[in-house]
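Possible race condition, two jobs.
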Amino acid sequence: MTIGIIGAGALGSNVARAFGKVGIAATIANSRGPESLADLVAEVGPTLTAGTLAEAASADIVVLGLRWSDAAAVLNTLPEWQGRIVIDATNPVAFLAPDSPDRSDPSNPLAAYGIKPVQHGRNHSSEVIVDLLPGARVVKAFNHLDVSALVEPDTGAGQRVLFYSGDDADAKAQVGGLLGKIGFFAVDLGPLDVGAPLAELPFGPLAAGAFVKV
């Protein structure tokens, strides 16, 4: 099984670190090219390789760690997915510049966190992502925790919980197994139409919940 990570921001980088801690090999890519990832590769170690977007996207399991605003532009450059598994770790939020007037918008309950919700007109954002990934088996995961928690599955009191959901039983089984390998207690929330809205930032009822299996 090969693993790719598309996106090397805070989320993608911490997923790479989580894999590296337990010796899981992965290829990570961003829009700036492999050379820009030299420091991250040196930090994580020999299990992490920097590649092109096409190389990361060709893996058996691909973690999608893009910002919402970049997802369509990046994914529209890639070929059909031919049954490969894509872990949708995106959330429909926009990141605000430090001097943005939106940071003091009283109608935005997330202004203090430097983000604002993005309206996408669907029941949940994974419906948008599925449309951008023809032929993929999509599983929602990695999106509901603070990214810093992704490298700390053991709280000392127990295992952090990571939720996942999807419509393909085999894809979910593989993703659930992967989450377990990196130290999390994986909880299946069911099909995408059920699980994705529950764990989707910013307003899913399970989003940002610090659940621990003791």
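Job #2 (started ~2 s after job #1):
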Amino acid sequence: MNSIKACIFDLDGVIVDTAVYHYKAWKRLANSLGFDFTEEQNEKLKGVSRVRSLELILQWGGITKTAAEQEVLATEKNTWYVEMINHMKPDEILPGAKEFVQSCRDAGIKTALGSASKNSMMILEKIGIVDLFDAIIDGNKVSKAKPDPEVFLKGAEAVGVAPADCVVFEDAIAGIQAAIAGGMKAVGIGSPEVLTEANLVISGLDKMSIEKLDEL
């Protein structure tokens, strides 16, 4: 009998991939300041907060800004990012994601979203899958960043399932660590060489099944 009673999903890199929009917005900001921003540099910003990302970009561009000026720039970047994700469409859902979340629901397993993004609800509405989640915990409902388990613990609480009976799907090391810190199982989306602490690593939710949950 399956002991997993709830699946909690990170959003970016698991359900959708908004990294391209972050990259375009940061690149636009860098260009407006008179320097370029590369895809290689963008890779170094994975899982890094907006404030820290801006600090690194300014550093790479050799530019110094006051804290107040940095706040203005970070807000500007976010405005551009939100404008872009506002045009997202259902075909931007990553392969197998919608199908696997639906199969969890069909099997009587609770589903929750656990994302640091404050734009989670808007993205889910744009891609048309809000109703696939029993609970949505996003950056507006948490104060601590991963690897703190707050977002996943709140997700478990919202669907009324004990942490030990939950499995988290994550693409970042900090997210895997947050799941483990919360006493949950963790499935990594990405590379086994990178997500070494996960109970299982797959390339995407198109490679996941209810049967594989039984093996965790």
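The beta strands are 6-9, 110-114, 135-137, 166-170, 185-189, 200-202.
Logs attached separately.
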